Amino acid sequence: xxxxxSKKILSFSTVKDKPIDRTYFFKDKTRxxxxxxxxxxxxxxxxxxxxxAFDHVNLNDLKNAMLPVVSSGAMILAGNFTTKKMSQYxxxxxxxxxxxxxxxxxxxxxxxxLHRVTDKKIKTTNGFSLAVAGEVMAIVYLYSSSFQATQFLxxxxxxxxxxxxxxxxxxxxxxxxTAAYAAKKTQNLLLKREYAxxxxxxxxxxxxxGLTSVANIFxxxxxxxxxxxxxxxxxxxxxxxxAILHDEKFxxxxxxxxxxxxxxxxxIIKNLLAQQIKLEQDxxxxxxxxxxxxxxxxxxxxxKIQGHHLRxxxxxxxxxxxxxxxxxxxxxxxxxxxxxxxxxxxxRAISRKISTNLQKHNGENNxxxxxxxxxxxxxxxxxxxxxxxxxxxxxVLVGSELYLNGEKNIFIQIxxxxxxxxxxxxxxxxxxxxxxxxx
Length: 439
Hints:
Elements: H1 24-52, H2 59-91, H3 97-113, H4 125-154, H5 160-196, H6 213-227, H7 231-246, H8 250-253, H9 257-286, E1 289-296, E2 299-306, E3 315-317, E4 331-338, E5 345-350, E6 353-357, H10 359-362, E7 367-371, H11 385-389, E8 395-396, E9 401-403, E10 410-414, E11 420-421, E12 429-430, E13 433-434
Parallel strand pairs: 11-13
Antiparallel strand pairs: 1-2, 1-3, 3-10, 4-5, 4-8, 4-10, 6-7, 6-9, 12-13
């Protein structure tokens, strides 16, 4: 019996004469890594084999898969030709083409960082292929131009080995990490502005920046590397650099790479897989459509608006598409007068009794009875948890429960929350927002 893997309680007499296995930790980690990668390889092999099996071949799917690859290669070649010609025109030599490659990569990635894959997806095949090709070219150029620029700057003051280490560090960690960190900060600022004007969003993913998943994965990987570069991992990089500089044999130079890869690889893969699930869920929530009441010269009418396009003051109808057990929007509650014959709504508020439960926000499992608003105006600028709890503000927060008590013609007048909780869990308050990035 393997006493190490046994879950039963063992007496001391069963293990006192057993020899100590000093390599158990290494063997256990090796076994776990082998199991992880073998399973991943089998799943990948099965997926590829089933996808390209003769009886499953679909020319349209093959075209959709190959077009981004072909477009990326063509755009990289066209970019190389263009940047060399620009370098020749401005500097009379092609040696400085890396400057124009870096500027081109920075421009494309900056444009991509201002968009979010959780708001809109490119539906056309040609448009998607063009976006993928642009992001692939930008990422390749960012790596190559950063490496070439570092080599150009330090080649005269450092030896070849030190120059190589500097180029790899700058191109592989510093520049991409800075780009990912800047994209993250930019998205935080954009999201705060979105929430302030009333957008009803779900943003649980760590990084939503990107036109497609290509740029999104690039930003996520390097933001993770940038934020998780602890002292121990930095020391591992120093050991790798030292081995490259001083060891003559190739195997000795890369002897520390497997340990660093085993330390960083599985967490990155696990994080990416978890983030893809969150991105899909955020996209589903952000693009959910609501019926919004509009008053025109011809009378009242309903329009469908996606959640991330909602704005302050919009009147969202509480109908069957609303999840009352966990409200997807925040705002004040108002009941409107309706003509029973024409079913037309009037911009006049009527008094009704509703109830809400704030357990997901304050932990109290109590139903709070509230009267609806007496008018379409409000003394409040934001939805305040304490004002709801005290009965002063008839409103709901994202994640709270709402009970209509059988009433009809109830609307949520969109209003931003004073403290934004971006999940159903608790989170630490940062300024006027609450951010929660659960794993």
